[in-house]
Every structure is written in C-alpha cells, then in structure tokens.
Write a structure and sequence with these properties.
The structure holds two protein chains of two kinds.
Chain A lengths: L2 E3 L4 E5 L4 E3 L2 E3 L5 E8 L6 E7 L7 E2 L2 E6 L4 E6 L8 E9 L8 E2 L3 E6 L1
Parallel strand pairs in A: 2-12
Antiparallel strand pairs in A: 1-4, 3-9, 5-6, 5-10, 7-8, 8-9, 10-11, 10-12
Chain B lengths: L3 E4 L2 E4 L5 E7 L6 E7 L5 E8 L5 E2 L8 E7 L2 E6 L8 E9 L3 E4 L3 E5 L1
Parallel strand pairs in B: 2-11
Antiparallel strand pairs in B: 1-3, 3-8, 4-5, 4-9, 5-6, 7-8, 9-10, 9-11
Classes of the chains: A mainly beta, B mainly beta.
Chain lengths: 116, 114
C-alpha cells in the first residue's frame, strides 16, 4: 500500500518570503500522480499543483513549484513570495495512474502560517 | 475548473435521527465520487468510494449500515448518516475525480449530533 508522509505538522513564513513544505511517499509503482492540495480556513480544498511521475520537469504554477525527486520519492512544495492568503493546511497526495477510479492517499497535512 | 457542490454546509440533529448530505458535480459527470471524514486539523479519512449505478465500496472499519451512500446519477451522490450519535459529529467532505486524477472537493458539511 502506498503511504504519504508530511513530516512538518506546522510551518510558518514571513510574508514575501519563501517556504518549502516537505512530502515523501512510498510506492512500488512507476506511474502515478502527485498533488498538493490547499485547505484554507474556509475549509474547501483546492488543487495547488499536480505532477505526473513520468515527467522529469518539475511542475510550476505561478508562485508555487515542486521539487520532484522520483528516485528519492520526495515531492516538496515551494511557495515563493508568500502572501497572507497562502495561510492554510496543505496536503500532499498520491494517486496511482492505474485504472480509472483509484483512490488518493493523503498525508497528514502541514499547517502553514504566514506572518505579516 | 470543475465544480463540486455539497449541501448542507452545516447541520445539527438530535441523536437517533438520520441526516442526508448531497454532493453534486455541477459542470461535469462524475462516475466516481469519494466521501471523507475529517477531524479538526487532521487529514482526510476516506470512508467510501461511490460508484454511479452500483454499490459503494467502503473502507475497512466504516459501517455500511451507518453510512449509506447512494450514487443514483452521474451528477449526484448522497451520504446518509443513519441513527446518528454524538460520535458521528464531524466534518464530511465529498470529492469527484476528473481527467488526470486530480480531485475537486465539495465545500464540506459540518455535522453536529446533539
């Protein structure tokens, strides 16, 4: 079974600074997807960024980028120029590329605080 | 992006009553939806996978008779908490999967059982 580990329960960053959230996973599969989701205090989770395992290039979405190390099974999220609105709980998630209806495995989450 | 709507956002009920939570995909068809339970500042615990037109697949330890899931159409899945008790109080979230495996989530439903 796949597992996802987020070793940082809480992180804080100064506004406009950069912060990196860690995520490692364990799988025997070679084809899969990795995601970072954000859950703000309003509680609705939204997708931040997605990475396909077969792609070597790290995904980037504006201020959000990932450092995907497939051999090390590491998938960290970097938030640049942090904004107050980035404050939220962030979940790393894994999903197998096999099949159409596979369930996702989530990490325990990292609560990010942004200090003004 | 895809929109998933969940209703109600908050519900308070008396112990022993049943509560139904709806999850709708507004602009796409979802053959599969997922139901989660989340405790404060904790991760999402998958309860069941809801499949349109067939029985839901429940995770180990989740009572099928307590948490009834119905996925009668391609845009609607419902979770009914039957004979609710205070320990069922929680935040329930649904999601639907699209394209590359990413999930779109409903707003969540806060259930309080008195």
């Amino acid at each position: 079974a796949q597992t996802v580990t987020q070793s940082q329960p809480e992180m804080s960053v100064q506004e406009a600074e950069t912060v990196t959230l860690s995520c490692t996973y364990d799988t025997s599969e070679s084809d899969y997807y990795l995601f970072w989701y954000k859950q703000p205090p309003s509680r609705q989770m939204i997708l931040v960024i997605r990475q396909e395992a077969y792609k070597q290039q790290n995904a980037t979405e504006n201020r959000f980028s990932v450092n995907f190390q497939k051999a090390a099974k590491s998938f960290s999220l970097k938030i640049s120029d942090s904004q107050l609105g980035d404050a939220a709980m962030y979940f790393c998630a894994y999903r197998s590329a096999k099949g159409n209806a596979g369930k996702s495995t989530f990490g325990d989450g990292t609560t990010l605080t942004v200090k003004p | 992006g895809a929109v998933v709507s969940q209703h109600p956002s908050r519900v308070i009920c008396k112990s022993g009553t049943s509560v139904k939570i709806e999850c709708r995909s507004l602009d796409f068809q979802a053959t599969t939806m997922f139901w989660y339970r989340q405790f404060p500042k904790k991760s999402l615990m998958l309860m069941a996978t809801s499949n349109e037109g067939s029985k839901a697949t429940y995770e180990q330890g989740v009572e099928k008779d307590k948490f009834l899931i119905n996925h009668a159409s391609l845009t609607l899945s419902t979770l009914t908490v039957t004979s609710a008790h205070p320990e069922d109080s929680s935040f329930y979230i649904c999601s639907a999967r699209v394209s590359h495996g990413e999930l779109f989530f409903g707003e969540g439903s806060r259930l309080t059982v008195l």
